[in-house]
From TrEMBL, chains A, B:
GO molecular function, one term: transcription cis-regulatory region binding
Domain HTH lacI-type, residue spans: 16-70
Keywords: DNA-binding, Transcription, Transcription regulation
Cell membrane among keywords: no
Protein name stated in the entry: Transcriptional regulator, LacI family
InterPro entries in the cross-refs: HTH_LacI (IPR000843), LacI/GalR-like_sensor (IPR046335), Lambda_DNA-bd_dom_sf (IPR010982), Peripla_BP_I (IPR028082)
Organism: Planifilum fulgidum
Length: 354, 354
DNA sequence: ATGAAAGCGCTAACAG
DNA sequence: CTGTTAGCGCTTTCAT
């Protein structure tokens, strides 16, 4: 009649286990397990007694162990370039809110667009047996595809996808977005439009560039490679890009800039203003994303909006659905970007003063 | 000579376990475990063979199971009001960066300052046996103290503490911060200074209020309760607070506002501008935190800076140290806030036009 | 240098 | 309704 030789818990200092509860309640661990998980038949009387003991002993079932028995840990991994970027923090908020509704927690990982670090995280998350992974990837090669497949975990892409890779993807039509931004400028009368962009190996960048080129072509405006300027990701990068643009002598100078994310746009605006140009009188600027920054910057930034929060919600919904169906999912949700016109764009007044 | 009756892995489709490796390498699972964890003595030859097999079979040790054997999951829980608030996303970035250096992952939880949800998360994290918890709490009652103690997990406070609760705390001297902001305004010549603040039950708010009051008193300026206006947390709340201030007839009207966080300050600036007042000519505004928003808003916001990123790094360092020493830690790190003067504050020109 | 075996805390048949 | 028991995948003595 001694089911197991275990260390006792006289002080309550050590972790209390299901055995402690069983013993204190005078039942078997099976019964305790049943009341905890609300399954099987247990008399109301025992159930209550067990629950009382659980409370008295301040017992918390160990999910980590139950996960051993085939259950999952209800945890998702979320890999993004940088949580301190408002674009991603908004996505994460949506994802976490949605995860919570389903009982999942989310592990955040900042990759800084470093594919090496991305891989490290992926491996580590696999060892921790997360149920699924949401990835805003910096990779686009076929190598990474194999890596992902060998992971054996459902992976969903958010915002950035690996072209041709079949799995859940929730993205925006970046080609269209690039087109909309450029077209807006063209419609205003601009013909000399520069493009500031994140590194072009990132899919979203090349797509937005395509949209930009398409709009130009459609309007019969020549595409000038020297006006396409890839930089980094942040405000400082936009600032430097703008400085460089002003420094280089161009004839004519651009009267408008399409910056392929809001931070680049804001950095550019700061540089332009410091150089004595006013926005939008001297130069129009369009951003991309529609982060909170757009409404705060002066002038408020015209931008191409992505539904960030909803995107976070959508991937998580799709991913969890796939997880619970034991599948890996393959929906490709392409959201429509929307042009939001604010005060950073206007008709070109005159050539940029030199 | 059959160590265990296990399902085989002919297709490689099922998860490969340490047994599969052991069998394929012709050694015992103990040996495999040794090479994985780099402990005990294993001949170079076997080690290499095992490693090769591991690679061939694409094996990933199951951390979740090893955690059963007394190890930890190397995971931290991080509870904050809202990740989409730049103040917190910066802290989280610091925390995650630091966690990664130590090999820890972090689970983010958005509480929205809801103490109920905070508790739910706490309980859930305990069941998942996180190694430690970092908390920017919305609670300040003694009840919560018991809850936290009964958790049996090291808890570290970031930014907001529960007064008198012994544990790791990394905070800023909010009293001093409130004083600095108000003092700055007074030094500029303002005597009619309103205070916009988060709800006063939050410790940081009441401390900043104390600082505000102290500065007033020191300058012999009467404290006017009707000028202390608690609101919510976001930009819209600041906007509404400012609207209300303008609406209420005050004689004299405040010539300056100390908004106890940047978002409130920015909302206030927007409202003031829309009402036709210019900043800082008509009204000076000081914020708190020094988020990225300060440099973007127009005019750039004078604020009281907190070292957000470093605070994230510091808590995690302290917490992990405590975890690894099996202790719970009790350091109270109080950082000095620093006034950052930008262009949203100036000498009062004249009474606010009515 | 290597392996057998005893857990870790819990779930899930399967018997009573 | 309740209890027995066999794992889950890995770590860790303790022999060999």
């Amino acid at each position: 009649m001694k089911p197991r030789e275990r260390q006792k818990n006289p002080t309550g200092s050590e972790k209390v286990t299901i055995y402690d509860i069983a013993e204190a309640a005078g039942v078997s661990i099976a019964t305790v397990s049943k009341v905890i998980n609300n399954r099987g038949r247990v008399s109301e009387q025992t159930r209550e007694r067990v629950l009382r003991i659980i409370r008295e002993l301040n017992y918390a079932p160990n999910r980590i162990t139950s996960a051993l028995g085939g259950k999952s840990m209800y945890t998702l991994g979320l890999l993004i370039p940088d949580i301190s970027n408002p674009f991603y923090s908004e996505i994460v908020r949506g994802a976490e809110d949605c995860g919570r509704k389903w009982g999942y927690n989310v592990l955040i990982c900042n990759t800084d667009n470093d594919t090496r670090r991305e891989m490290d995280y992926l491996l580590s998350l696999r060892e921790k047996r997360v149920d699924g992974i949401i990835l805003a990837t910096a990779s686009n090669t076929d190598t990474r595809r194999e890596d992902l497949e060998s992971l054996g975990i459902p992976v969903a892409f958010i915002s950035r996808e690996i072209p041709g890779f079949e799995s859940i993807r929730v993205i925006v039509d970046n080609f269209r977005g690039g087109y909309l931004a450029t077209r807006h400028l063209i419609d205003l009368g601009h013909r000399n439009i520069a493009l500031f962009t994140e590194p072009l190996n990132i899919v979203t960048s090349s797509e937005r560039l395509r949209g930009y080129a398409e709009a130009l072509q459609e309007a019969g405006i020549p595409y000038r490679p020297e006006w396409v300027r890839p930089g980094g990701f942040g405000v400082e990068s936009g600032y430097r890009l703008a400085e460089a643009l002003l420094r280089d002598s161009h004839d004519p100078m651009p009267t408008a800039v399409f910056a392929a994310n809001d931070q680049l746009a804001i950095g550019a605006i700061q540089a332009f203003k410091e150089a004595g140009h006013s926005i939008p009188e001297d130069i129009s600027v369009v951003g991309f994303d529609n982060t909170i920054l757009c409404t705060i910057v002066d002038p408020p930034l015209t931008t191409v909006a992505q539904p960030m929060y909803d995107m976070g919600v959508k991937v998580v919904n799709l991913l969890i659905e796939a997880i619970q169906n034991e599948g890996s999912g393959s929906e490709r949700i392409v959201l429509e970007p929307k042009l939001v016109v604010r005060r950073s764009t206007a008709k070109p007044k005159s050539p940029l003063p030199r």
